[in-house]
Design goal:
The complex is a heterotetramer, with one copy of chain A, one copy of chain B and two copies of chain C.
Chain A (H helix, E strand, L loop, with lengths): L14 E6 L5 H17 L2 E6 L4 H13 L4 E4 L8 H9 L4 E4 L10 E4 L2 H16 L3 E7 L5 H14 L5 E8 L4 H14 L5 E4 L2 H11 L8 E6 L2 H9 L4 E4 L2 H16 L7 E3 L3 E3 L4 H7 L1
Parallel strand pairs in A: 1-2, 1-3, 3-4, 4-5, 5-11, 6-7, 6-8, 8-9, 9-10
Antiparallel strand pairs in A: 10-12
Helix pairs in contact in A: 1-9, 2-3, 4-5, 6-7, 8-10
Chain B lengths: L5 E10 L2 E11 L4 E6 L5 H8 L7 E6 L2 E3 L4 H6 L2 E4 L11 H5 L6 E2 L2 E2 L1 H15 L14 H13 L5 E5 L7 H16 L3 E5 L3 H7 L2 E6 L2 E7 L4 H9 L17 E10 L3 E9 L3 E6 L5 H9 L6 E6 L2 E2 L5 H7 L1 E4 L3 H5 L6 H5 L8 E2 L2 E2 L1 H15 L15 H15 L3 E5 L7 H16 L3 E5 L3 H7 L2 E6 L2 E7 L5 H9 L7
Parallel strand pairs in B: 3-10, 3-11, 6-9, 9-10, 15-22, 15-23, 18-21, 21-22
Antiparallel strand pairs in B: 1-2, 1-4, 4-5, 7-8, 11-12, 13-14, 13-16, 16-17, 19-20, 23-24
Chain C lengths: L13 H4 L3 H14 L6 H26 L7 H17 L5 H24 L5 H20 L4 E2 L2 H4 L4 E2 L3 E2 H19 L1 H11 L1 H6 L4 H27 L1 E2 L7 H11 L11 H20 L4 H26 L1
Antiparallel strand pairs in C: 1-4, 2-3
Helix pairs in contact in C: 2-13, 2-14, 3-8, 3-9, 3-11, 3-12, 3-13, 4-5, 4-6, 4-11, 5-6, 5-11, 8-9, 9-11, 12-13, 13-14
The complex binds adenosine-5'-triphosphate (2 copies) and magnesium ion (2 copies).
Keywords (chains C, D): Cell membrane, Membrane, Transmembrane, Transmembrane helix
Subcellular location (chains C, D): Cell membrane
InterPro entries (chains C, D): ABC_transp_permease (IPR001851)
Chain lengths: ~290, ~500, ~325, ~325
């Protein structure tokens, strides 16, 4: 077997597999980095695959992990319910499965390491409400229609914003988690709603696109709240163009998932859920995020 | 006489920019061969396409068995018992010969295509027209002549009451033509009515009963088939032509094209000859003799295994068309649709294709100059068109052929190779082309001409090479060459003829 | 000469008639050497399951490509059919055989609309089916409200195995493949597809009802897409509005790798099957070899090119 | 008759020669009526900026499609070029004009590889460029480590405006469009593309060096993709490895909407421009009208079909 072996210390011949929902997004790239760094530290071999946001490709990858007799599998589900058959298959082969970032519904993962997207959405609403002083007109940039992240963040935001009767959501449009689309869609929305004072973008990529579209207004007349806490997002906070960012600590998430996977692979007992705290990065506390990552 | 099976009155059809048919009357009786005659673009193909359901008339009526009928689709025509052999093949190159023969009506058993029955039936159909081809072979592996025979066999397979043949003999050699005529005579006896289009006037008396002459989209005369050729020509082109083959011999110079021991295993072997400046050399032979293959190899369009080709004393690299062209070779290919024309492009574009390289300066094409040159050649060849921007696809068959020749005339090649150059061209235009050949040789160029039209080979060549089964069977001077001597070489078993 | 051993009957060989089979064989041999996990029964069955959806879509696509068309909507139609199945079977309590039939009808209807746009509307197939892609994908989202719908157990058994080994998706794939081979080789519709793709005008003038045959062609592609969607959903036990995103490219690639030409008139069921297997084996192998995620795309690209290159080189040698 | 007003010179009109222009006009009129915000100078400039990347990709694609090919790699090549630009200009401190030139060369090199695979390797264009898509996308990810790379300010000015109004991307788009029109109409290479796309064998027998011309064609497409990538990155002030994902389909759609045929020999720069504008106007309009996310795809699909349908209907009436 020629694949690069990062073997070292005590892990010996432990192989674990990680199926990431997509690497088309810096958030998950960071998750992977955290996982790989932790694996190196523990001295286990980790195989990372990219499901390219395709639930069935993810099932394929988990099946392949089973074929390779991985000792533990970490799945970062493309979709919570669609991951069930894959988890069941691994369960049949007695391979522990750790769900990372999103839970699995319809099957039992050994552990779910997640920060809650719905809760994050609510937090974002609170932050935006605070930044706007409880009133104003808000536009929402939605994620790719039909994906669970888009759905959950949207849901959380909608619930959270109800607490601010003075805030009116004047437009919701999809920008597919993409920076270019974020830029184009925001530009277009500004044409129809030039009086927007707040923007919630369901991820940092779209938030950064929106900031580009807002130009000098970003952070001043228009407050933008993002989601994910990617390096570029945190930089925007420092620059003052992004008012708040719901940071999910993907690196930590990846690290914790690998720790649990190694423990489970060695036959140890692990908790059913580990909640990775969702934090809000603002100009005041951004330094602690940038140091951590 | 017997009652008419088909009667056409006042048929009109216009295309953007052209009135193709302008009031045509025509009728057809069972058991007769009715010849349609007319210049290129006179409207012959358009007329028959309206009888076969390919086009719809703008005006006018069609009566079948005395009843007014509209023929909307090819199926309607088939139901009425009308079968058509189109001028441009309507075959599917990727499919097998058998499937082409039964295109759209394969034999079926329990709802599934019965391949065994299909191949058996195909063999019968091929045998009927006497063509040697494997029913299982893909059609594209056949030469153009055998494709024509397949097209004929396909139409005969419909057992129709009316058989329309649009220039079926254009690509056939004498022996195939004779076989076709035998079949036509049998059909006549069975009472089949036949519409026959040809530009070979001598065939009219051989096979025809009546002739309808079309001019500029209108029927101008209906005469018996034994009308003298001169008279037919006069009716057709509006003037008489005194000499069919106006070859003017010019003085011969040094050899411009030398071919030595050219061989491609299994196709042609040890072909050696030369063509001198000022000379027209005819290349005769039966279909499948390998003439096309030889000239394509000379021109660099195909590879060869051994031998060499020299132009003006310099050796050509193998399989390199551009090098051959730069050395002064030109080739008018036999298959105009497949190899000669960009059908979707306009006349100007096609005429300028070969000379485009020379009309290019610093990467930019001199489009104005090209247009002028194209206009000149189109005028010279009498191309019937609505303008230089007409799509070549919509030209009549003969006019398309003129474009293929025209683009090479513009190139002023030192040695021009013509493969069946006058296929489908009317008598008037043929004479134009012959005169152009004369002026080429007079200017010191050379011409190598393949033709299955023996009178043309005999009438225009200074020297005749005859090929049989991939070899040069012999060479005849203009004086020695006659129908009989050429045919003897073409068919004969490599016998020596001095 | 080189392929002499595999020559089965005079004048033709399975190899020379089926494009990239040699590419697939080389790939399988290479992976067997590189990874001990590859050539095991379970893994090969996994490959079969993983190939199933693409292969079924590709079989449908084969009809379209042979008749010189293209269908960009198959992925979206698969997703729509799956959503319709789940929606009717759960929210509306339709018994599953009825719901499955209904989902199939939805696929066929999408195909018929494609066909109608192309024949009556004279739209280029690329545009008509691109439009349908958007419409089908959008309708899937609208019906499902953007959320996956869980499938009732009755249906999701379709994604399971018969006994403990034989996966149903593999069986469905093989059945659809055989159907495709028979349709293409033995039925009037199939032969008409080749004729239309090879020379539409000739087909028309030979009395083939081109409009009707094209409608049949696209309807078949739509029906096959529906089957693929049902298999996909039952594997995941849920119907996802965003499932099979981009699968149309994989399906077209499988058909072309299998030796068909986008200009029509050529193509075979077996070739398509080989093409789909190449793609599935490749993805499976890269996972087994733990190729890094970023390099995977590079490797997939290179191997696809090599697999098809092998075929063209062999063909040139044969001449 | 119906188009009499727009007839500019005898025998031809801008409308009848440029496919879907009428579709675009109808779309613009409809949007103007539906939304007061649509027909403003700023918004139209926005549409221009948003069309720019697709249009530039589509101009490059036009060459390929006219010569009867297809290039699925343009989106990925655009992203790769952008990443290379950002990487050389930041990590390696190359001065920006050099870095830009280098990024351009990368695009052209990708195109040449496509061309070589197609001509020397005899791969179908679909397969060759699909392989390149994977390779270019993968290399972009490898170079950037999957994360966006910020562009130095010197380069990102390319995404700004000249003065306070004139956006550079629009200017670049127009320049590339004019180049395309000139190349196609006036140069040897352009005319050769039409001939090769119309009948490759006839082109070869007329002395056109088909291999060389195809290499030029794909190299142009690659170069244009690089330009598109640079414009895209400078608009965002950052190069994203996953930028322009799926843009190849938009580019092909723009070319086909503009009246080109995937079977080659037909196509125009102006048509492609109109096609790209239709797509951009459509997306802009949907945002302005606040159409719900789920319905957007449906509407895009329907409107594309209608826009092209209008053209075919008009053509049929003219006859
Ligand atoms: N589809 C079309 N569109 C435009 N013009 C057409 C079309 N088909 C035929 N024409 C024109 O109609 C005229 C008659 O063409 P037709 O093919 O009937 O001539 P023909 O008598 O068969 O000539 P030939 O002897 O060269 O075959 C020509 O001028 C031709 O250019
Ligand atoms: N009647 C036939 N029987 C067997 N083989 C044939 C026959 N006709 C043609 N072929 C084969 O098909 C090939 C191409 O046929 P085609 O008719 O183009 O021959 P050709 O030599 O070009 O004809 P021509 O001499 O008329 O130009 C020939 O090389 C020959 O081997
Ligand atoms: Mg004719
Ligand atoms: Mg010949």
């Amino acid at each position: 077997n020629k694949s690069s072996s990062s073997a070292g210390g005590g892990g010996g011949d432990i192989k674990i597999g990680l199926s990431v929902s997509t690497l088309n997004n810096p958030y998950f790239v960071q998750l992977r980095q955290g996982a790989e760094a932790e694996a190196k530290k523990e001295g286990v071999k980790i195989t990372v695959t990219d499901a390219q946001n395709d639930a069935s490709q993810q099932v394929n990858q988990v099946q392949n992990f089973v074929s390779q007799s991985m000792k533990a599998i970490i799945i970062n589900p493309v979709d919570s319910s669609a991951a069930a058959p894959a988890v069941k298959a691994a369960d049949r082969s007695k391979i522990p499965v750790i769900a990372a970032d999103r839970g699995v519904t319809g099957a039992d993962a050994a552990q779910t390491v997640a920060s809650d997207n719905v809760a994050g959405g609510k937090l974002a609403a609170q932050e935006l409400g605070k930044a706007l002083g409880g009133k104003g007109k808000v536009a929402v940039l939605q994620g790719t229609a039909g994906t669970s992240a888009a759905r959950d963040r949207q849901q959380g935001f909608a619930e959270g914003i109800k607490a601010f009767p003075g805030i009116q959501v004047v437009a919701q449009q999809p920008a597919d988690f993409d920076r270019t689309k974020g830029l184009d869609v925001m530009t277009n929305l500004l044409q129809a709603h030039s009086d927007i004072t707040g923007v919630f973008a369901a991820n940092d990529e779209m938030a950064l696109g929106a900031i580009k579209a807002l130009g000098g207004k970003a952070g001043k007349q228009v407050k933008v709240v993002g989601f994910d806490g990617t390096p570029d997002g945190l930089k925007a906070i420092q620059a003052g163009t992004l008012s708040a960012d719901v940071a999910q600590q993907p690196v930590l998430l990846g690290q914790l998932a690998v720790q649990s996977a190694v423990k489970a692979a060695k036959g140890g007992k692990i908790e059913a859920t580990v909640a990775v705290p969702v934090k809000v990065a603002t100009k005041d506390n951004v330094a602690q995020f940038t140091n951590g990552a | 006489m017997t009652e008419e099976i088909l009667r056409v009155r006042g048929l009109r059809k216009r295309f953007p920019g052209v009135v193709a048919l302008d009031g045509v009357d025509f009728d057809l009786r069972p058991g007769e061969v009715h010849v349609l005659l007319g210049e290129n673009g006179a409207g012959k193909s358009t007329l028959i396409k309206m009888l076969s359901g390919a086009y719809h008339p703008d005006e006018g009526t069609i009566f079948v068995d005395g009843r007014e009928t509209t023929i909307r689709t090819a199926e309607d025509a088939q139901r009425l018992g009308i079968a058509t052999i189109y001028q441009e093949f309507n075959l599917v190159p990727q499919l097998t010969v058998a499937e082409n023969l039964m295109l759209g009506r394969p034999p079926r058993r329990f709802g599934f295509v019965d391949k065994k029955a299909m191949y058996a039936r195909a063999q019968e159909m091929l045998d009927r027209v006497g063509v040697d081809a494997d029913p299982r072979a893909p059609l594209e592996s056949l030469g153009i002549a055998r494709m024509q025979m397949v097209e004929i066999a396909k139409a005969l397979g419909l057992d129709a009451r009316v058989l329309i043949m649009d220039e079926p003999t254009a690509v056939l050699t004498t022996s195939e033509v004779e076989r076709l005529f035998t079949i036509v005579r049998q059909l006549k006896e069975q009472g089949v009515a036949i519409v026959f289009i040809t530009h070979h006037l001598e065939e009219i008396a051989q096979i025809g009963d009546r002739v309808t002459v079309l001019r500029d989209g209108a029927s101008v005369a209906e005469v018996p088939a034994d009308t003298p050729e001169d008279e037919l020509v006069r009716l057709m082109v509006g003037r008489s032509i005194d000499q069919q083959y106006p070859r003017e011999r010019s003085t011969q110079g040094a050899p411009l094209l030398e071919v030595r021991g050219l061989t491609r295993t299994g196709v042609f072997e040890d072909v050696s000859f030369e063509v001198r400046a000022g000379e027209v050399v005819g290349l005769a032979g039966l279909v499948g003799a390998g003439r096309t293959e030889v000239v394509r190899a000379i021109f660099g369009a195909d590879h060869y295994d051994s031998g060499e080709v020299l132009v003006d004393g310099r050796r050509l690299p193998r399989g390199n068309v551009t090098a051959a062209m730069e050395a002064g070779l030109g080739l008018v290919p036999e298959d105009r649709k497949g190899q000669g024309l960009v059908l979707g492009a306009d006349i100007r574009e096609n005429l300028g294709l070969v000379t485009m390289r020379h009309a290019t300066h610093a990467g930019f094409v001199d489009r104005a100059g090209q247009t002028k040159a194209a206009a000149r050649v189109a005028e010279q060849l009498g191309v019937r068109m609505s303008g230089l921007t007409q799509e070549v696809r919509t030209l009549s068959g003969g006019n398309q052929q003129k474009i293929v020749i025209g683009k090479w005339l513009l190139a002023e090649a030192k040695v021009l190779i013509l493969d069946e150059p006058t296929r489908g061209i009317d008598v008037g235009a043929k004479v134009e082309i012959y005169q152009l050949i004369n002026s080429l040789t007079a200017a010191g160029h050379a011409v190598l001409m393949i033709s299955s039209d023996l009178p043309e080979v005999l009438g225009m060549s200074d020297r005749v090479l005859v090929m049989a089964r991939g070899r040069l069977a012999g060479e005849l001077s203009a004086a020695e060459a006659t129908q009989d001597s050429v045919m003897a070489l073409a068919v004969g078993e490599l016998e020596e003829t001095a | 000469m080189t392929t002499g051993v595999l020559r089965l009957r005079k004048g033709g060989s399975v190899l020379s008639e089926n494009g990239s089979l040699i590419g697939l064989i080389v790939l399988v041999v290479a992976l067997t050497l590189l990874s001990g996990d590859f050539l095991t029964v379970t893994n090969l069955l996994n490959v079969g399951v993983q190939a199933a959806v693409t292969a079924i879509l590709a079989f449908g696509q084969t009809y379209v490509i042979i008749s010189a068309g293209i269908d960009l909507s198959v992925g979206a139609v698969a997703a729509l059919s799956a959503v319709v199945l789940a929606w009717t079977a759960t929210s509306n309590g339709m018994p599953w055989p009825l719901a499955t039939g209904f989902a199939l009808l939805v696929g066929i209807a999408c195909g018929l609309v494609n066909g109608a746009l192309i024949t009556y509307g004279k739209l280029p197939p690329f545009i008509a089916t691109l439009a349908m892609q958007g419409v089908a994908r959008g309708l899937g989202l609208v019906i499902s409200q953007g959320s996956p719908i869980a499938l009732p157990d009755s249906v999701s058994h379709l994604g399971d195995t018969i006994g403990s080994y034989l996966p149903v998706p593999v069986i469905v794939m093989l059945v659809m493949g055989v159907i495709t081979a028979v349709v293409l080789n033995r039925t009037y519709a199939g032969r008409a597809m080749y004729a239309i793709g090879g020379n539409e005008e000739a087909a028309r003038l030979s009395g083939i009802k081109v409009t009707r045959q094209k409608l049949i062609t696209y309807a078949l592609a739509g029906g096959f897409a529906a089957v693929a969607g049902i298999v996909l959903a039952s594997r995941l036990a849920s119907a996802q509005p965003q499932a099979a995103l981009g699968y149309e490219l994989d399906a077209i690639a499988a058909v072309v790798i299998g030796g068909a030409s986008l200009s029509g008139g050529k193509g075979k069921a077996l070739g398509t099957f080989v093409g789909a297997l190449i793609l599935a084996v490749l993805r499976n192998g890269l996972n087994l070899l733990s190729v890094s995620a970023f390099w995977q795309q590079v490797v997939i690209g290179v191997v696809i090119a090599l697999a098809v290159l092998l075929d063209t080189l062999r063909r040139r040698q044969a001449r």
